[in-house]
Amino acid sequence: MLSQQPSMTPQEYVQQKTAASGSSFYYAFMFLPAQRRAAITAFYAFCREIDDVVDDAVDPGVAASKLAWWQAEVAQAFAGKPSHPVLLALMPIAADYKIEESHLQAVIEGCQMDLNQTRYLDYPGLQRYCHLVAGVVGEVAANIFGQTQAATTLYAHKLGLALQLTNIIRDVGEDARRGRIYLPMSEMQLFEVKAHEVLKGVYSERFTALMQFQARRAQGLYDEALALLPAADRRSQKPGLMMASIYRTLLTEIEHEKFQVLHQRISLTPLRKLWLAWKVQALGRI
Fold it and tell me: What mean pLDDT do residues 129-139 have?
């Protein structure tokens, strides 16, 4: 399981893992104080490691074994015996930012769902998945950023859901090529979109209407999340607001592109992400 180069420290490993992902999260981390940046970088690198097990899987059995290894490694780490570079980087600062074993195990559980489930019957079922892979991540991140108000946890979970639904909208085609459809089956039926059409990359007015419905839900969740953020924590939660700005801009871009997501991955340029993050840092709002 170890892919650490001999000369690389755990801190260098997680930094490289995070930077190499090309994720929008990287731009939000840049403005944090050094210790908080180190904590979120290590935690995000852990999430990437787990996500990569599923995304890179050729054999589901091998992927399941790797996730089982990670479950044991996390338990070992919280028992004081970490061995993987991401946990060697994370464990010394976990207690400072209220990162618990249950948080990391939830992320693994969410990725196990990806191995066992390629369809979601309805939106509540999808929400359970989003809670594990995004809501819990948002909760941990809010603590690392410097949460002081209990209500900020609700904001973090709601924002995590909005971000994950944006990911799902962006990645419909990419996920379909892996045999996965995250759009709720009940809603696909409502708009008369067939699974084989999504899997084959077939556009239609019905598909566009379905995606408009998904986008309206996500936009509404961004509004709900921002309304839940206590004023006392707005300053500390700037990195989350940066993510909201970047992802909401991406969602608007996808809407402008008429949801042409089956054959391509629509994205923002690194410069635009940096600009959006800087605006939140400078102005304190989206």
Answer: 96
Please write the tens of the pLDDT for every residue from 233-278: 999 999 999 999 999 999 999 999 999 999 999 999 999 999 999 9
Position 259 scores a pLDDT of 98
Closest CA to 221 of 150, 156, 140: 156
User: 3: how many CB neighbours lie within 10 A of its CB?
Assistant: 10
* Domains contained in the chain, CATH given: 10-116 (1.10.600.10), 118-286 (1.10.600.10)
Question: What band does 2 get if pLDDT is binned at 50, 70 and 90?
Answer: low
Residue type, 142: A
Please state the separation of Cα 99 from the chain's center in Å.
17
d(CA 55, CA 43): 18
What angle is formed at CA 242 by the lines to CA 240 and CA 244, rounded to 5 degrees? 70
